[in-house]
Amino acid sequence: MKIKKIFNNNVILLSDEMDHEMIVMGKGIGFNKHNSEEVDFSKVDKKFVIDKGQTNKLTELIEHINIEYLELTKDMIEYAENKLAVSFNQNIYLTLTDHISFAITRYQEGIDIRNPLLWEIQKFHKEEYHVALEALKIVEERLQIALPTEEAASIALHFVNAQQSGSDMKQTIEVTKIVNDLINIVKYHYGIKLDENSINYSRFMTHLRYFAYRILSKEGIPDENDSLFEQIKNRYPKAYSCAQKMVTYLEKNDRITPTDEELVYLIIHIHRVTNRSTNRS
Questions:
Q1: What was the pLDDT predicted at 123?
Q2: In Å, what is the CA distance from 190 to each residue of 23, 186, 187, 193, 204?
Q3: Residue 281 pLDDT more than 80?
Q4: CB 25 within 8 A of CB 46
Q5: 180: exposed, middle or buried (C-beta count within 10 Å: 0-12, 13-18, 19+)?
Q6: What is the C-alpha to C-alpha distance for residues 75 and 81, in angstroms, rounded to an integer?
Q7: What is the CATH number of domain 67-161?
Q8: pLDDT, tens digit, for every residue of 185-213?
Q9: Can you spell out the DSSP letters for 228-267?
């Protein structure tokens, strides 16, 4: 691949004869280089091969921000992937770089924007939130800019979103709200405080997240065993009653009605998480 554009000594845009593009980073990779020259891949530390149509957006973004923000974001993402033991969708390099740039601009202009989902993110995406707090330290160490602690919630959402194939930030925010509302239905229905440190709570949260994604994607689990639903419904009547309240909530908010097969899993999880919490109480 040959150099198409040099952003600075460490970041360049490459293209091949088929016009496939790639942004690469490496110390001194663009030093004393010119367009159309071959690149020395031994100097490449990071390649950015993102979704088709997104390369132009990333290129445009790089042209209008401090290039150090891209290098900073790269380190934040690699740190998060290591801590969370995941591989993010490459589009996070575009979305998070844009966010960090805007957050720094707001900070410098004294504009404070509150995140309305701060509490939910802290509660339902604990691991991503704690990693995001550490990511803020990278910003402070590199730029001597102490972004508000609340900014970690927004960064955490980028980490969550980048783990969901094909989803977008709007959907991630919707999922977080749905999960929070469903959890509150369980709490008020049973009149208890759930044991958030239990394995059942962790399993319940995981189930609710994927349940919410399926609801938003209109991809419910198909009905396969009506007799099992009737059996679970009769065995756990209180959990079934709670699940029906969830169905009512979803229908009022223009979501699809979960299938009986979906409700089987939901009822079982509700019973497990509330049974342990009730016994502890």
A1: 80
A2: 53, 6, 5, 9, 15
A3: no
A4: yes
A5: middle
A6: 10
A7: 1.10.1790.10
A8: 999 999 999 888 777 787 788 788 878 88
A9: HHHHHHHH-HHHHHHHHHHHHHHHHTTPPPPPHHHHHHHH
- Domains of the chain, residue spans: 2-49, 67-161, 169-280
**Topology adopted by domain 2-49:** Transcription Regulation, Sacy; Chain A (2.30.24)
- Distance (Å, rounded) from C-alpha 71 to C-alpha 11? 9
Rg (CA), the chain: 23
Alpha-helical runs (H) found in 65-192:
67-84, 92-108, 118-124, 126-143, 151-161, 169-190
Domains 67-161 and 169-280 share a fold: yes
Q: Would you state the pLDDT for residue 264?
A: 87
Question: Which tokens sit at 189?
Answer: 């229905």
Q: Are 175 and 212 in contact (CB under 8 A)?
A: yes
- Please enumerate in sequence order all residues whose Cβ is within 8 A of that of 29, keeping only pairs 6 or more positions apart, or say none: 9, 10, 11, 12, 39, 40, 43, 44
- 191, 168 Cβ separation under 8 angstroms: no
CA 73 to chain centre: 15
Tokens of 207: 């189930």
pTM: 0.64
266 by Cβ neighbours in 10 Å (0-12 / 13-18 / 19+) ranks as buried
CATH 1.10.1790.10 matches 169-280: yes
